[in-house]
Design goal:
single chain; 271 residues; transmembrane; transport
Amino acid sequence: MSLLFDSADRSQTARAYEDLVTGVTSWSLWGMLGWHDIRKRYRRSVLGPFWLTLSMAVLVASLGLIYGSLFRFELHNYLPFLALGLAIWSFIAAVLNEGGQSFLEFESLIKHVRMPLSVHVLRIVWRNLIILAHNAVIFAVMALWLGLWPGAAGLLVLPGLALLVTNAVWVALLLGIACARFRDVQPIAASVVQLLFFVTPVMWKPELMAERQWLILLNPIHYLIEVVRAPLLGETLPLSDWGVAVLITIAGWSLTFATYVRFRKRIAYWL
């Protein structure tokens, strides 16, 4: 009897793994669907998704002048810090808010079209990554204007971005499963996102916490922002911070994969 159960467990594990692998390799599918979402959202718009870039630029300029004066930061250092922080945070917040809709949003598609469930999660992450790329234009323009050049350290943004996206996928997948089963998770997640914005060093710098730095060290989002922001600012991030970001990725995917193995086959019935 135990052998039968072990075989069944391995079968579900293999199916979940195959779903994820097939979903990732179907990049043309979720890539096309993500672009479709962006075009649909900004249909008949002159600037398209660059409206987000424009609004983000206004936000960076306004908050930069206000908080730069309040915190007595030098604007040529603070504005790039703020622009990157807000762009990366917008991506994280969108994944947290929309991740819960990964399966609910595409209920009809899931019930009528046979495709890996992970495709719907990757679709959401991809469309928000496109928006992140649009918002990154603000930093690029600002860097040219201020003569900011990160040097060789800037190349570390590539593994940093890979860590950010990899974590975004497991977060969206886990929230998608939770919200498919319990609809109350979505408003809870929205409230948590609002709280996280104020306790995460997006508009303020970590050194302002002084003796309470441990509060920042307990915030996992801080590490995921810094592995992207620090290299672009030409700053050297401690290896310990990279290590924590990697551990967050491993722990998050371990939990999510175990959850996906157990509940993947029930998702369609919960919708």
